[in-house]
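ok, trying the design again with the full structure, not the truncated one.
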């Protein structure tokens, strides 16, 4: 039930942010646009903080996936770079969800572990560097790159930084699941 409310808030926040951005670009709607944008950011930030507080990789990834899906939906069809990046993020999340399913079964995950090289470059804290790790690392990099853009609104920057932090929290929780499965 918590996930449902969280995801509803994430979806609503993305819609408000988009409505706010459109308002900011429209003469006479700037004030309403700013209010919608700031409310959307506040709801999103609160929701992502709530997701992080669970320390549950699945909850965190579901929240991020919902937000990215809405970002993609609100993207201009001419913004091919953003569309490509967001589409790739969603595809990597699907692979990460498969890893989450597998890590829940110790037998399956032990078998999967034997298919990964034991070279330290292919490991994180001794665990396989699998699709979950690739997804959160790539997405964290994507979010951090956006925060480096000059002129970015500081409240939006705070949201991006929280989302990047959530990727670290999700990865930490996932590593714990890996360790438990590989005992």
């Amino acid at each position: 039930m918590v996930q449902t409310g969280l995801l509803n808030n994430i979806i609503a926040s993305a819609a408000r942010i988009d409505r706010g951005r459109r308002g900011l670009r429209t003469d006479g709607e700037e004030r309403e646009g700013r209010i919608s944008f700031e409310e959307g950011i506040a709801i999103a930030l609160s929701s992502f903080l709530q997701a992080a507080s669970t320390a549950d990789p699945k909850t965190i990834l579901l929240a991020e996936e919902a937000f990215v899906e809405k970002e993609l939906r609100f993207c201009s069809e001419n913004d091919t770079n953003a569309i490509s990046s967001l589409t790739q993020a969603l595809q990597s999340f699907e692979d990460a969800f498969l890893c989450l399913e597998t890590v829940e079964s110790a037998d399956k995950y032990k078998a999967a572990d034997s298919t990964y090289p034991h070279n330290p470059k292919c490991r994180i804290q001794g665990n396989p560097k699998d699709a979950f790790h690739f997804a959160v690392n790539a997405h964290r990099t994507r979010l951090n790159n956006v925060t480096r853009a000059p002129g970015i609104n500081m409240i939006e920057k705070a949201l991006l930084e929280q989302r990047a932090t959530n990727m670290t929290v999700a990865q930490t929780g996932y590593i714990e699941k890996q360790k438990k499965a590989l005992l």
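Keeping the full-length input from now on. The chain has one domain: 2-181.
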